[in-house]
Every structure is written in structure tokens, then in C-alpha cells.
Design a protein that fits this description.
By secondary structure, this protein is an alpha+beta fold. Helix content is 48%, strand content 12%. The protein has a 4-stranded mixed sheet, with helices on one face.
């Protein structure tokens, strides 16, 4: 259930935007923050607030890698799988994460703590291999650093 206070706050953000569509990602991220992922109810609320159809919101949501349309762990790990990161050892980091977490890419640990998601690019090409845990970017990764980062998360 989306609280009325959140609906009002999001409606104000839409009114402040130059166009409603400009606020779409912000609205989806706030609804995601509320539920942990963008639920079907969240899609409906976003559509209502933005003056879009639910299908249009769904199309936007599935375009952005950091909008989740299914439940995810408490911490989401995005591992860059661009050519730059793979050339710098990204495949080794993916293997380390798979072994350490016991999940395949796209999976969530049995305790619900982590979800591992490969992504097209994190915009940190000169610092590869790169991953983001939550909102924190980590570059020039080694397998040893991955263990330290996971323990600290």
C-alpha cells in the first residue's frame, strides 16, 4: 500500500517538473525505495501521477537497469559487464561473486541479503573492473577486495 503522504510528495515533484515525463525516473525510484522494488501497484501509481498509461511506465521501468520489477535483496550488486571491465578482469570478479554469494547472475542469496545483476555500463571505464553495491561505486577491483566489500556491506 502506497501511503497518502508519499503520493502527495510524488505529486508535488511531478508538478515541479517541466513535463511529467521528466519526473518519471525519480517517481519510479521513490516508489521502488518505498517497497524495495517497483511493484505492480507502484507502476499504477506512477502512471496515475505522470499521466501515462501503465504500459508506458512499464516500458520505462524495464529500460532502466536500476529499476527492479521483481523483488531484490537488501543490497543489489551491479557488476559492469562492458568490454572495458571484462578486459580488465571482470570475468574473474563475476566468478568470485558467484562463488562467494552462491548465486548466478540475476539471482538473490537465500538470506535475501544480496542480488547480483550484471549491467551494461557503470560509466567508470577507466577504473575497471567496476561494481556498485547499493549506491557505492567500487573500481579497480580484485577478488580480495570483493570479499572485503561484501563483508562491509
Amino acid at each position: 500500500m502506497i501511503p497518502d503522504s508519499l503520493r502527495k510528495e510524488l505529486a508535488a515533484r511531478v508538478r515541479e517538473a517541466i513535463t511529467p515525463r521528466e519526473a518519471a525516473v525519480d517517481i519510479m525510484k521513490e516508489l521502488q525505495r518505498h517497497s524495495g522494488w517497483l511493484t505492480d501497484e507502484g507502476v499504477e501509481v506512477a502512471a496515475e501521477l505522470l499521466g501515462l498509461s501503465p504500459l508506458q511506465v512499464e516500458e520505462l521501468a524495464t529500460f532502466y537497469e536500476m529499476i527492479y520489477r521483481r523483488p531484490v535483496g537488501k543490497q543489489v550488486i551491479h557488476l559492469c559487464d562492458s568490454i572495458s571491465c571484462w578486459c580488465m578482469g571482470g570475468e574473474r570478479i563475476m566468478e568470485q561473486l558467484r562463488e562467494k554469494l552462491g548465486v548466478e547472475p540475476g539471482g538473490t542469496t537465500t538470506d535475501g541479503r544480496f542480488t547480483l545483476i550484471p549491467c551494461a555500463c557503470l560509466g567508470n571505464c577507466g577504473e575497471g573492473p567496476t561494481m556498485m553495491v547499493g549506491d557505492t561505486l567500487h573500481g579497480r577491483l580484485t577478488p580480495e577486495e570483493v570479499n572485503d566489500i561484501l563483508c562491509a556491506a
